[in-house]
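ARCHIVE CARD
Drawer: 12
Card no.: 0347
Subject: one protein chain, sequence and derived structure
Cross-reference: see card 0346
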Amino acid sequence: VEIALLRRQLPFRWPLLSYITARFSFLIAIILHAVQSSPFYTGVDCQSINFVIIFCTNVAIGCSTTNLMIRTWLIWKTNYLLRLLLILLSLGHWTVLTLFLATARASTINGVCVINFVDLAYASAVVIYVMLYDLALLVFTVIGLLRMPSSSTLWKTLVTQGVVYFIINFLANLILLVCSLL
């Protein structure tokens, strides 16, 4: 998508902004995590780099779920009450992700950056909210697709790409929840 946008083969549309932001935020988080975990001395403040990693990760999570919400939004374009519910759920999702920024504490021990405090109850609450929000989006998407004629190109695209992605995303969140509760 990025190369097609740069070559002007794909016209820019506003929903792509969330997609591109999610990809680059995740890339930044991975690079910073590699720097943080590096065995070489980097001389960076451990708490600051941890904050930026959590921030970029939360932006990537929020934007990827927003991409899922946009798909559901397009399916239910005539139902304004459901669209209002999607907006409220999305605002709650972004609020939970933003509040999670302040919960982790990190410090340097023997030259290694270590996360030494995470509020497990709050971390589990974030994972549960994200999982339930994604499940609600999955249910709304499947119900919306069942109401559409199956010859529609949007229907075919969302069935082949969207529903499978929703299910994989839900299963990944379920695994994350089980691991966080152990």
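Annotation on reverse: The two ends are 38 Å apart (CA to CA). The longest strand covers residues 112-117.
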